[in-house]
Amino acid sequence: MPGSTPASLTAEAPASGTPATATSPAVAGEPRKRRSVSPWLDAWRRFKRHKLAMASLFVLLFLIVAVAVGPWIWTVPINEIDFTAKLQGPSWKHPLGTDDLGQDILARMLYGGRISIAVGLAAMVVAIVVGVLVGAISGMASGRVDAVLMWLADLFLSLPQLPLLILIIYLFRDSLKNVFGLEAGTFLIVVVVIGGLRWMPAARLVRAQFLSLREKEFVEAARALGASKSRTVVRHIMPNALGPVIIAATIDVAAAIIAESTLSFLGLGFTSDTPTWGGLLRDAKDYMDFAPHWVLFPGSAIFLAVLAISFMGDGLRDAFDPRRVL
Amino acid sequence: MSREYLIRKILLLIPAIFGISIVLFTILALAPGDPFEELATNPAVPPEVRQQLRAAFGLDDPVYLRYVRWLVAMLKGDWGFSFVSRVDVDKLILQRLPVTLIVIGAAQVVSIIIALPVGVLAATKPYSLFDSVANTLAFVGSSLPTFFTGLVLILVFSIWLDWLPMVYRADLESTGFRFIWDHIKQSIMPVMVLGLFQGGVLVRYVRSSVLDVIRLDYVTTARSKGIGERRVLINHVVRTALIPVVTLVMLQLPIVFGGAIVTEQIFRVPGIGSLLISAMLANDTPVVMSVTFVFACLVVICNFIADMLYAWLDPRIAYR
Question: Phi and psi of B81, rounded to 5°?
Fold first, then answer.
């Protein structure tokens, strides 16, 4: 395994690093570009030491593979109504039981997991793209632009997230549904609104990184060699600011999955025709006394996903902090 | 804390609430749909009447005029009229607000009671077994969504053990001591759901804050003077370590408000969170707008209190 003698393993390193970090595209792309991969390899070595984070990585990979491949293996339709088998506990025919219409919960959970995880990743991308842009502009521009952008970030931070999320979805849901269709419209608004209300932490992180990095000697050296401002930012400052961004991105995925589940749970996200994990919980909560399995399985799925992502964020924090001795 | 500092902070509240009102109004103005949409589809109302109504309510005026009118009405306490329950919105909210504040306040107290001893103990023995168990549990508690913990608590304590009532009832029949007992019983689960979540977050804050302080020189001085470990901890370490925690408790509140919405919905607690959801499902726009505004104002006020407490507790802060 890499780690003992990193220098001799540079050629092999990207191959061994890629599958494990496939969930965060920024990491996957990076080792390939440069030949000397030592910072990323070092981070991966540190990450491996964090046992809970490694376990979480496997749990998460399992969940992703399950929802990605599962619907092809478990081919029971998500909306096959069978009143003779309603509210049944787990059995061979329905491994996770059935709901009040006799629909198979495993099939609905596999389908719902796709949506929940997709929403989480997409909302994270929105939040990080906006956050990195705002933070980078703010950190490079300084002066009045910086003041206005940070004032905006502070304003957004002082807004109550969930009520605002609910308000926006309430006001815009119907018209987006008419334009993009029920499922795509809901997906779009949920992703954009969740992502759009979570860019502030990333923006502040990136700004802080930029403020300190742009004064460093290597950036000055790049400037002295005649590198343009955009080249300095993209090639020299940004790669060094990426660590905290990746950690923030990981946490954002968990937060977005919780936000989407909360919305669906409150009946404001996807409808019952499109089962998400939160939506399954909403449908199940009125049948808790007859069918506890219906609550427990989707709930545990959310719990596992969120917890695994959070632990991974914790592991990444250790991995990207070179000052920390492990 | 000087008086000017206080006055300046109070004056700074005004632009904050102003900014929130602009954000909310912008969202409302950008939203498609129109409050008189129902009239348009109602054949009994001729189009001319609808036009007159629109003109009378000033819906055809430019945006800034509508904003000023809306803001003035909000400031005067004229928050509109609930379409569904036929009551003034401000009365409806005032009726519901105390319940929410009590639940959130009780949850804060619970979280502090849990987090303070656990966090301090974990910090006095860092990397011990107790520390790692407390840390892991805190991590799990703070990353669990409130709706799931709520449902699990109902499942365990109401359905399997049958100890606590499943839903919160505002119209209890019992009286006297029994009334109080019933109220406590039905409040335990909503308060615990929020309190445990908040407690998980706080344990980590308290721990890292105490760890920062415990290595400072003045603590060593106190020890070398022969003061007992217990007194050093309580009188010297915790007092200083709690200053940043107080701020964090307050700044964490927006998330707790979000959790309160969910919790009220699960346990059917009649607070403003469940009012928001039911108004939304019933398309009751005036109520939805006002409740969101109230939530935003509460957050701003909590931030203000956090600033004040911080300045009051920490004499090192310069009040410029």
Answer: -135, 125
